[in-house]
Amino acid sequence: MANLKEIRTRISSVQKTKQVTAAMKMVSAAKLKKAQDAIVQIRPFAAKLHEILSDLTGSLTNSDENLYGVERKPEKVLLIAISSNKGLCGGFNANVIKQVTILAETTYAEQNQRGSLHILAIGKQGFEILRKHFNVVGEHNHVYDNLNFESVSTIASLVMKEFVEGKYDRVELVYNQFKNAGVQILTTEQFLPVVQPEGDMSSQTEYIFEPNQEEILDELIPRSLRTQFFKAMLDSFASEHGARMTAMHKATDNASDLIQDLNLTYNKARQAAITNEISEIVSGADALAN
To answer: What are 172's strand-pairing partners?
Structure first.
């Protein structure tokens, strides 16, 4: 059994760790509220805008007008892995890395072998791991310094430009979709080309364009894609804080249980030490009496 000093030192160490994890839980909870409000507000707008975008691109017959909906054989593929800059958030980052690895080894195994599978990493945690195994062509970790529509639009616009120029035939997003503080849904979502609506195209909504269809599409399609990208970033950001809050909550609970066990061990060791001292005193007294 460990001596009393060692147990006291361990108890003090675990108590300090518990204070840190409890503080991190509170910080993540505060940040989660703001991030959750942002994603809940943008979801209906992004969903409706994407629905309109799908209808409009599906109704175009001229491929020159449908720049972002051109279906090509996916010879060159870009996977955008959205992780976080910080750890201590459970399996949040590991799930994204694992999903990218699965896609690279199954769906896009041929492209990966040819070197035509590229990874764009957003978040230091994903970047540090993925660059060791795959062709990571860029990282945008700085976007978390000031996460807003303008900073995210810069990344989305660059990816859209590369797709139109033919550098990539398909672009997919891999990220955690926010459901609630305790649940994050790992999502793989096709970003480009724009997914066409299923079913009979004649049943799609008819739109009246003002001033004309060309100008509306030139403005609406890029904006819708940027909004879709921004929504994915907000989803991931809220999921990160939810995952970290849950992880720190569990860590705090585990620390409390460990402190309880250590206190019990300490009391047993102290009791044993006292009993041993009493036995020695009694034995000494008996020896003197004899």
So the answer is: 79, 190
Where do the domains of the chain lie, and which CATH numbers do they carry? 37-248 (3.40.1380.10)
Q: Which member of 38, 89, 117, 225 is catalytic?
A: 89
Of 185, 263, 199, the closest CA to residue 18 belongs to 263
Is the overall model pTM greater than 0.90, yes or no? no
Active site residue 89: yes
- Report which secondary-structure segment, H or E, holds 185: strand 183-192
Q: Give the 3-state secondary structure of 75-97.
A: CCEEEEEECCCCCCCCCHHHHHH
Which residue do the tokens 């810069």 mark?
A: 154
- Of 80, 35, 69, the closest CA to residue 189 belongs to 80
What Cα–Cα distance (Å) separates residue 18 from each residue in 13, 26, 251? Answer: 9, 12, 8
Residue 89 has pLDDT above 80, yes or no: yes
- 14, 24, 58, 84: which is closest to 205 by C-alpha? 58
Contact between 119 and 137 under an 8 Å Cβ cutoff? The reply is yes
Residue whose tokens read 């007294």: 285
Q: 106-142 burial string, b = 16+ CB within 10 Å, else e?
A: ebbeebbeeebbbbbbbbbbbbbbbeeebebeebbbe
Confidence band (pLDDT; 50, 70, 90) for 63?
low
- pLDDT, mean over the chain: 89
**Separation between Cα atoms, residue 50 and residue 64, nearest integer Å:** 20
The tens digit of pLDDT for each residue in 177-223 reads 999 988 999 999 999 998 766 655 444 567 777 777 777 777 888 99
